[in-house]
Structure formats: C-alpha cells, structure tokens
Amino acid sequence: MNIHQYYPVDIVNGPGTRCTLFVAGCEHQCAGCYNKSTWRLNSGQPFTVQMEERLIADLQDTRISRQGLSLSGGDPLHPANVPDILRLVKRVRRDCPGKDIWLWTGYRLAELSAPQRQVAEQIDVLIDGKFVQALKDPALRWRGSSNQVIHYLR
User: Fold this and answer.
1) Would you say the C-alpha torsion 32, 37, 42, 44 has a positive or negative sign?
2) Model's pTM, two decimal places?
3) What is the DSSP string of the chain?
4) Angle at CA 12, nearest 5°, toward 20 and 18?
5) What confidence score (pLDDT) does residue 1 get?
6) Which residues pair with 22 in a beta bridge?
7) CA 19: distance to chain centroid?
8) How far is 154 from 147, CA to CA, in rounded Å?
9) Separation CA 118–CA 69 (nearest Å)
10) How high is the pLDDT of residue 76?
11) How far apart are CA 27 and CA 71, in angstroms?
12) Beta pairing partners, 18
C-alpha cells in the first residue's frame, strides 16, 4: 500500500484530535474530487513498518489526547489496499484501546466485498458513497456530498 500524506495531529477529518492517513488508489475517480493526486495506486510513498510504528506511537502518546485514527485517500477500501488496511485497523484495535477508527470510501456499505466487510467489522464509523459534484454541500459535516452516508458501526 502507498500513502500520500500522514497527519499526526488533525482536527478536520473526524471528531476530536486524530491521526489521519491518506492512502493511494481510487477506482471511483469522482468528478470534482479534491484529492485527484491519490487516484493512482503506485503514487505516493510506500506505507512502511516504520510509518506504521510511528502512527501507533502517535496514537499512544499521552502528551496529545488523540481520539482516534482517520483513514481516507484515495480509497482505503480499494481492493489492493484492503490487506494492509485490515492489518492496520486490527493492530490499532489491539494496541490502542479506546481509540476510534473512521474510514472514508467511495464504495457503498451494502456493496462491500467479503474482504472489505472484514475491515468494516473493525472500524467505528464508515462514511460511504462516491463524491457527487451536483450534490456537493459545504455545510455537511464529515462528507462532501449529500448522497454520502455516515454509518456508526460500533
């Protein structure tokens, strides 16, 4: 899996103070996407063991009370990303108790494949649906267009 950006302290992508990871790879390629640079799977930089260790350490750092992890992109549920994302969310569950996990995807919850559902079983909140330019609404919280749905899974 490749990543484009990692924010160890983020207050925009979910509630509270969070760690946010933007991954590479998106099949949806929505018109009006603000993050087109993340569409190609081979763009960005590899998500290394060192990066994972840093993310876990940041989530555990008691100097900054982080509420959890946000996963965006690109699309964390792109089929090529699912194995690494699943491993990461399981590790966050195990090593960072009490931290929530939010994930944004263009896939609809009802249409997730079996491997994608395994990821959904590990997270707290899934924001699903492609961005639709005609339904763009800057007043919406945590999503860009009104067709996108916030699913509270835990």
Assistant:
1) negative
2) 0.95
3) -EEEEEEEEESSSSSSSEEEEEES--S---TT-TTGGG-STTSSEE--HHHHHHHHHHHH-TTS---EEEEEES-TTSTTTHHHHHHHHHHHHHHSTT-EEEEE-SS-GGG--HHHHHHHTT-SEEEES---GGGB-TTSSS-SBTT-EEEE--
4) 40
5) 97
6) 5, 72
7) 10
8) 22
9) 17
10) 98
11) 16
12) 10, 68
- Strand order of the β-sheet with 2-10 is 45-46, 2-10, 18-23, 68-73, 100-104, 125-128, 149-152
Domains of the chain listed by start with CATH number: 2-152 (3.20.20.70)
Tokens of 75: 């699309």
The identity of residue 139, as a single letter, is A
Supply 151's token pair.
């699913």
Burial 39-74 (b: 16+ CB within 10 A, else e): bebeebeebeeeebeebbebbeeeeeebbbbbbbbb
CB 45, CB 1: distance < 8 Å: no
The pLDDT tens digits for 112-127 are 999 999 999 999 999 9
- Which residues does the chain have with pLDDT short of 50? none
pLDDT, residue 62, reads 87
Distance CA 63, CA 152 (A): 28
